[in-house]
Design brief:
Length: 516
């Protein structure tokens, strides 16, 4: 299944989030009383959006389920009104992971199928990549199973300039459509024509495990693939921990014929997961995922003083056109953060979707988290972080640009309270959000204020983003108020009278200092 080699070391840290006005512009739930999980949201040419994922529901908004899990495609308007929905699959498990609009206003959808009946034909066994082409109204136009006798799956698709598409995922096979496997699990890439005919099939990897989670046609006509690897041989070099089962993020650049141009392992000696990669406007690349490392390429890990093991932190890496690291940024909100997708915003920054673990699970019990979206500048400064959801698990798997410079995020929710309205099971959850001033204010651990006493400037540092600082006198009156989006801030206190003051950070913690 998707992200099979993303190893998450989930630490037992519980941290509350200060309830602030949400930046949600609108939200909708879609699904039935079963389990329905959205994996991708994409803007469409008519100003609306299309959603892809899987549905187990038989009823509610879900019609025509063929069996266990079906591909479930939902077309919605700009305001979230459902325009049509359609199930695709057979009697076994069929899981959609990505969707992209094609030049004819239809859609190509990719994922994995274990079926070989219903709408599915040609399965090679064990689970195949399944690629379907549908019209703008959801009519199935063609389908193709790609793989061998073992498990194969597609995680991402990119339409190509010639009217075809490139599909990326993973394979364990070395037969059928897969002529060669480097060992265990390889990245599998397939170029198809607009009619679904195979142009070429390529595998990339080493003797251990690789998986591709994203693909995009580059400006030069080639392709960039993002994912993860545990190998340090074959096509892979530069793994940061060759002695343990810890993956690095892996980015590979391909020519238009699928020839590898360069590859880059990103990480440290602990584990990294994810690896979603997109080309940026400067011909470089942005990569998002998560990390537990505090070395190697990870130079911005936020160590928490109460947690010796470290947290799984959301990780953003900017590469230049040749794959060299330009900057990286870790983001920690509560205990564990995972970033799933990103897009470049109109101002050159990057919008990210994922989830933040906020409840320590009981032994053997469920793990609860809130959906998360964040924004960083073109140079990696944290500009915005927000977590949304209810009292159970909420997660964003995908983000996309929305009208007016805002964004839309999609995933699933198990909640029926808080920010979630309309859930009748485990439903698709789609949220359109804006930046505004509704920045989630989180507790900032590790606060320091120096020099103390202060004369002209007071430097306040913390381990999480500082959104605002209100300096108050001993009577509780605010005498200085400033807003920020970084971990290190400076407050001008030169105009204050000598005496004792309190700096309230993010409306939560307070540090005491003396003005000399």
């Amino acid at each position: 299944m998707k992200n099979t080699i993303s190893i998450l070391i989930l630490s037992a840290l519980c941290c509350s989030v200060d309830a602030q006005p949400s930046s949600i512009q609108w939200q909708h739930c879609y699904g039935g009383t079963g389990g329905d999980e959205c994996q991708a949201v994409r803007a469409t040419s008519d100003g609306g959006y299309v959603l892809a994922g899987d549905a187990t529901s038989h009823g509610g908004m879900v019609t025509g389920n063929h069996g266990s899990d079906d591909f479930w495609i939902v077309k919605i308007s700009a305001s979230g009104t459902m325009e049509w929905e359609q199930c695709y699959g057979g009697s076994n498990v069929d899981l959609a992971y990505d969707i992209r609009q094609t030049a004819d206003s239809g859609y190509v959808v990719v994922g994995e199928t274990l079926s070989n009946d219903g709408q599915v034909s040609g399965n090679h066994g064990g689970g195949d990549m399944w690629v379907i082409k549908i019209s703008s109204s959801g009519v199935l136009q063609w389908q193709r199973c790609i793989g061998g006798s073992l498990e194969d799956a597609a995680n991402a698709v990119s339409p190509t300039a010639d009217g075809g598409c490139v599909v990326v995922g993973f394979t364990f096979s070395s037969d059928g459509d897969v002529a060669f496997n480097h060992g265990n699990e390889d990245v599998l890439a397939v170029k198809l024509t607009g009619a679904g005919d195979i142009v070429w099939v390529k595998t990339y990897g080493g003797s251990s495990y690789e998986e591709g989670v994203s693909v995009q046609q580059k400006f030069d006509g080639g392709y960039v693939v993002g994912g993860a690897t545990i190998s340090d041989d074959g096509d892979v070099s530069g793994l940061h921990n060759a002695y343990g089962p810890y993956p690095d993020l892996w980015v590979i650049s391909l020519s238009d014929t699928g020839k590898m141009e360069w590859q880059r392992c990103l990480g440290g000696v602990a584990d990294e997961g994810g690896g979603y990669c997109r080309q940026t406007s400067d011909s470089g690349f942005i990569v998002v995922g998560n990390t537990n490392s505090q070395d190697g390429d990870v130079s911005s890990y936020i160590s928490h003083p109460t947690d010796n093991m470290g947290d799984t932190e959301g990780w953003v890496v900017k590469l230049d056109a040749g794959g060299m690291v330009q900057w990286n940024r870790c983001i920690l909100v509560s205990g564990d953060e995972v970033f799933n997708e990103t897009f470049q915003s109109e101002d050159g920054g990057f919008v990210i979707g994922g989830w933040s673990h906020w409840v320590t699970p009981a032994p053997g019990g469920p793990f609860d988290c809130n959906a998360l979206f964040a924004k960083v500048s073109s140079m990696g400064s944290i500009e915005y972080v927000d977590t949304v959801g209810g009292s159970l698990t909420d997660q964003f798997n995908s983000v996309a640009p929305a009208a007016g410079g805002s964004g839309i995020a999609a995933g699933y929710t198990c909640s029926t309270d808080g920010d979630v309205v309309g859930n009748i099971g485990n439903n698709y959850w789609v949220v359109q959000f804006g930046w505004g001033s509704a920045v989630k204010k989180v507790p900032v651990s590790g606060l320091t204020a120096e020099p103390n006493p202060a004369t002209d400037f007071l430097s306040i540092k913390g381990l999480q983003p500082i959104v605002d600082v209100a300096v108050q006198d001993i009577w509780g009156r605010t005498v200085v108020s400033e807003s920020f989006h970084t971990e290190n801030v400076q407050i001008n206190v030169s105009g204050l009278a000598p005496g004792m003051y309190f700096a309230k950070v993010n409306g939560v913690e307070t540090v005491k200092f003396v003005k000399r």
